[in-house]
């Protein structure tokens, strides 16, 4: 199935800002993180089609997955 993946901030470094990726059926957000080699501990916000979701959320054909890293500062 094809999923649109958008990466933000430093997740783009050495990767991409937006791309359409092919994943097998029943792929969840955690699977995509592993594939992109993004550590879960660095993850801030996860959206599918603009809605907050958990890492176990299963993706569907045509979904748009947005991944934001933790933001630090003070």
Q: What would you say about this model in short?
A:
With 74 residues, the chain is mainly beta.
Give a verbal description of the structure.
With 74 residues, the protein is mainly beta. The protein has a single domain (2-69), classed as Beta-grasp domain (Ubiquitin-like (UB roll), Roll), CATH 3.10.20.30. It has one helix at 29-36; strands spanning 2-7, 18-22, 43-48, 51-52, 64-69. It has a five-stranded mixed sheet with strand order 2-1-5-3-4, with no helix packed on it. The longest helix has 8 residues, at 29-36.
Residue-averaged pLDDT = 95
Count every helix, treating DSSP H or I runs of 4 or more residues as helices: 1
Largest sheet descriptor: 5 strands, mixed
CATH architecture: Roll
Order of helices and strands: EEHEEE
Global Rg: 12 Å
Approximately what portion of the residues adopt beta-strand conformation? 25-35%
Class from secondary-structure proportions: mainly beta
Instruction: Give the assembly state of these chains.
Output: single chain
CATH class: Alpha Beta
- What are the low-pLDDT stretches, counting only 5+ consecutive residues below 50? none
Shape: globular
Helix content: 10-25%
Gap from first CA to last CA: 41 Å
* CATH topology-level name: Ubiquitin-like (UB roll)
- CATH level-4 homologous superfamily: Beta-grasp domain
Question: Could you tell me the number of beta strands?
Answer: 5
Spatial strand order of the main sheet: 2-1-5-3-4
Structurally, how many domains make up the residues?
1
């Amino acid at each position: 199935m094809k999923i649109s993946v958008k990466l933000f901030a430093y997740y783009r470094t050495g990767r991409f800002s937006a791309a359409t990726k092919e994943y097998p059926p029943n792929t969840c957000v955690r699977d995509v993180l592993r594939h992109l080699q993004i550590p879960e501990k660095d993850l801030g916000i996860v959206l599918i089609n603009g809605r907050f979701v958990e890492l176990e959320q299963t993706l569907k054909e045509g979904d748009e997955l947005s991944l934001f890293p933790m933001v630090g500062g003070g």
